[in-house]
């Protein structure tokens, strides 16, 4: 597909996927993490590579091996279970987040019922009574799979734009 070509994916499917993505981030922002897990396929890979500052014209600036997160559905469920306990120290006090999704592009894949979804995500995060919020800008590439009348995320690859994150920790979902 050339750079200016419009997506051949049906407009109704594109709108459905956008709504699905909006519902997913609402679950995160409302701290409904159990509901959020339902947006994820059982075989999901959740991958956030480490950004590396390198010289101009370097072949890569995202580490081919280093990861901030590299999760499966099982490890994401463990992270959610920990958030439900008093031992989630990084989330004391809990984060208040807003995920702003924009630039959603839906393209077909070679597999019927699976779509490559690219988007930009700006995450606003505040905690406790701090007057200094955190902003995290992310490029996301998801593989979204049709499941019945809805969808599930089968792969999330998210590259954080900052090499140094302006937060004490990164205990939120992207």
Automatic annotation (TrEMBL):
GO MF term list: dioxygenase activity
Pfam families in alphabetical order: Ring_hydroxyl_B
InterPro entries on file: NTF2-like_dom_sf, Rng_hydr_dOase-bsu
Alphabetical keyword list: Dioxygenase, Oxidoreductase
One of the GO biological process terms: 3-phenylpropionate catabolic process
PANTHER family found in the cross-reference section: 3-PHENYLPROPIONATE_CINNAMIC ACID DIOXYGENASE SUBUNIT BETA, BLR3401 PROTEIN
Stated family: Belongs to the bacterial ring-hydroxylating dioxygenase beta subunit family.
Protein name: 3-phenylpropionate/cinnamic acid dioxygenase subunit beta
Source organism of the structure: Leucobacter triazinivorans
